[in-house]
């Protein structure tokens, strides 16, 4: 295998023969292929794509670069959920204990914030003492004891993916359907799950801003996951405005507790329940959507799923008292309101601008080594389609200083659009993608 020749062929749109791509990737793992050569291949894939066979070969190489867990015993079905990233998206924090309380196992490996989008690990680490760095053996024990566990990707799982992503991040090749698909599906297969539900975000606050691109990504990931033996489906969910009210790590944990107590914002509850029903049905743990939903709603409303979250927090080293005493999460020293400049209807609350404003407050990272302030962020007090009066609070800002709050207000001004007539409320769920009939 001559690296330059393979790069040239993929650059020119050729289909690589079986074994060629995996040999190239294996050479990269063994440091026989240089970073600059791997970067060149990634750029060729970005422009030329991968065939279904090439995508399968790449995904298998990533899986086989590390350990592969196995939950295929006689226990409950093991399932997981993956979101492509959004603003205010704390669904995983609600979904994992809820599905565990339903009777499924949820071994969840999550990520940190990326760009304007939040990260599940950052939210969890706003809980005092919570550890996301468990090794795989401890991970399995937590799943066995609690029914769910939530950790970061370890070097033992798909290490090739970590190396590839580091290159993609600095070479402008993150936004590639086959590369995204191989990255996500490889890690989920390596987790040892049997079922996967994908939350593919669509809109200004998502990485896929239009429905056609989001549907292509969903279709590619679902079919790829199925080819590796997973029962998989995807929901396309809206991300033009933030999900729920809270944006920011500790604020989102508070909202998670509210949702698991039977309350919380209606949109967060609806998206979470829709994804949970898809996971339950895909795992074969129910035969009727409506009945599965009623059972899940009951587990939210009676507090049993919240108790499960408390057990998870304690088992992973966190302070379980936050479940009953959310003030233990801390609070930002400056709280002030961003108000509307005039009366009208809210036509837009740009999720991307709000996410970037949250990063500016310190809720996310501008650079890899930045420290996150878990207490800062926003409460979004209105939604698209609401009528607001001049001077009415639209967003509550939680900041470290008055200057930070003023900077955030300037960006929020760019996120808010007022209209003279009532706009249509954007849909929460735009569609569903199931496995292709073969």
Structure description:
- The protein has 438 residues and is of the alpha/beta class.
- The chain has 3 domains: 3-49, Transferase, Pyrimidine Nucleoside Phosphorylase, Chain C (Transferase, Pyrimidine Nucleoside Phosphorylase, Chain A, domain 3), CATH 1.20.970.10; 79-324, 3-Layer(aba) Sandwich (Pyrimidine Nucleoside Phosphorylase, Chain A, domain 2), CATH 3.40.1030; 331-419, Pyrimidine nucleoside phosphorylase-like, C-terminal domain (Aldehyde Oxidoreductase, domain 3), CATH 3.90.1170.30.
- 45% of the residues lie in helices and 16% in strands.
- It has 16 helices and 13 strands.
- It has helices at residues 3-11, 20-29, 35-48, 52-63, 91-102, 120-124, 136-146, 159-171, 177-190, 211-227, 249-260, 266-282, 289-301, 304-315, 351-361, 402-415, and strands at 79-83, 106-110, 148-152, 195-202, 231-238, 246-247, 334-339, 344-349, 377-380, 387-388, 393-399, 416-419, 429-434.
- The strands form 4 sheets. The protein has a 4-stranded mixed β-sheet with strand order 1-4-5-13, with helices on both faces. The protein has a 4-stranded antiparallel β-sheet with strand order 6-9-11-7. A 3-stranded antiparallel β-sheet has the order 10-8-12.
- Strand 4, helix 10 and strand 5 (231-238) form a beta-alpha-beta unit.
- Helix 5 (91-102) packs across helix 13 (289-301).
- It is globular and about 65 Å long.
- The mean pLDDT is 94.
Brief sketch in words of this structure:
With 438 residues, this protein is α/β, with parallel strands linked by helices. It is 45% helix and 16% strand.
